[in-house]
Amino acid sequence: MGDHVVVVEACGSPTVSESVLRTVGEQLPGKPVRSVVLTHHHSDHSGGLWTYMARGITVLTTPGNVDFVRSIAAAPASWTAGWPTHPSPASIRSHAAARWGAGPTRSS
C-alpha cells in the first residue's frame, strides 16, 4: 500500500496489538494502519482486535466472522484507560475467503 498499512490478524492480545501499532508507526512513519484483516475468530488471530477497532481501524473479514466482530465491538474493555467503553469501528467489510490463485470475491 503506497500511503497506508494493512495488518493481517489481530494476534494475541491488546498488548500485542499495541506493540504492532507502535512498531508500524516507528518503522513506517506517515503510513497509518487503515485496515486489519481477520481470517477467523480464534484468539490467536483475534485476541487484539478490540485495540484496532477502538482506534477506528477498518476490519476486513469473511461473512462468517461479521457477528463475531460485532460482538467484539460491543464488549467493554476494562484493560484500557481513556478509550471509549465500546469502540465504534469505522466499518466492517465482509469478503468471501480468497482461494489460492484467485482474488477475494466481494460478498456485501
Overall description:
It is a single chain. This protein has a single domain (5-94), classed as Ribonuclease Z/Hydroxyacylglutathione hydrolase-like (Metallo-beta-lactamase, Chain A, 4-Layer Sandwich), CATH 3.60.15. 31% of the residues lie in helices and 16% in strands. The protein contains four helices and four strands. It has helices spanning 14-27, 43-46, 49-54, 66-74, and strands at 5-8, 33-38, 58-61, 92-94. The longest helix has 14 residues, at 14-27. The chain is globular.
What is the topological layout?
Blueprint: E1 5-8, H1 14-27, E2 33-38, H2 43-46, H3 49-54, E3 58-61, H4 66-74, E4 92-94
For the sheet with most strands, the description reads: 4 strands, parallel
Helix content: 25-40%
Q: What is the CA-atom radius of gyration, in angstroms?
A: 14 Å
- Structural class call reads alpha/beta
What is the overall pLDDT average?
75
Order of helices and strands: EHEHHEHE
Give a brief outline of the structure.
This protein has helices at residues 14-27, 43-46, 49-54, 66-74; strands at residues 5-8, 33-38, 58-61, 92-94. With 108 residues, the chain is α/β, with parallel strands linked by helices. It has a single domain, classed as Ribonuclease Z/Hydroxyacylglutathione hydrolase-like (Metallo-beta-lactamase, Chain A), CATH 3.60.15.
